[in-house]
Amino acid sequence: MQSAWQPVVRQAAYQATLAEAKLCWGTNSPPFNYRWEHIQAVVQLAARLANLTGADKEIVAAAAWLHDICKRGKDDEHGRQGAIVARQILAQTDFAPEKIEAVADAIAKHVGLYTHEPVEPLEAAVLWDADKLSKLGATAVLHFSGYQIANGRGTTEHLIAHLPHLPWQLEAVRSFNTAPARAAGQKRLEAYGTFWETAAQELAGDDL
DSSP for 80-120? Predict the structure, then answer.
């Protein structure tokens, strides 16, 4: 049975993506709402990782829905600001009061594409891993391509030329905190690279 807080945080997250779209594209109906697609992917991944690692499922779910609540383009402060807003939103719901600070802590710590220090506690580590895992693999191909299309840069040549080379992805995989994320991250990293290599070969006719 769904708790009352869940549709509240979901709606808050969705509305935040519309605000970001308005800022970035001048419309709250972009051809591809990258942020919303990203958030939904993180929620799914975080739930799976929570099951696999024993992390608190409610903390992880709330943090996943709200982790980008203050994201507005490239904003390194959105984690700290998001933690503040998450506290306010959850305090107005039936979410367990004793767990709110753990949610805020996870949101504050999720910023960055890679890290050289372990993320703790487990719930924060799970959110960090889910967030970065969503930026790898076939899902990343779809999301990054959609983002480029929304920005008017959706030609095949542009996508192949600009999306395959993301060196931070390797560092992200090295930074994963949980064993399931490390294993999946390596597979996704390879799948991502293979896709773009294949696409470039096909476009040039090198597969003939």
Answer: HHHHHHHHHHHHTTTS-GGGHHHHHHHHHH--SS--SS---
Q: How far apart are the first and last CA of the chain?
A: 54
Buried b (16+ CB within 10 A) or exposed e, 3-41: eebbebbbebbeebbbebbeebbeeeebebbbbbbbbbb
pTM above 0.85, yes or no: yes
CATH code, domain with 47: 1.10.3210.10
How far apart CA 144 and CA 206 sit, in angstroms, is 25
Task: Tell me the C-alpha distance between 208 and 108, whole Å.
Answer: 50
**Of residues 83, 63, 190, the one with CA closest to residue 129:** 63
Q: What is the pLDDT of residue 92?
A: 96
Distance separating alpha carbons of residues 200 and 159, to the nearest angstrom: 10
Percent of the chain with pLDDT over 90: 85
Q: How many domains does the chain have?
A: 1
Domain containing 89 equals 5-204
CA 203: distance to chain centroid?
Answer: 30
Residues 50-93: tens digit of each pLDDT: 999 999 999 999 999 999 999 987 767 899 999 999 999 999 99
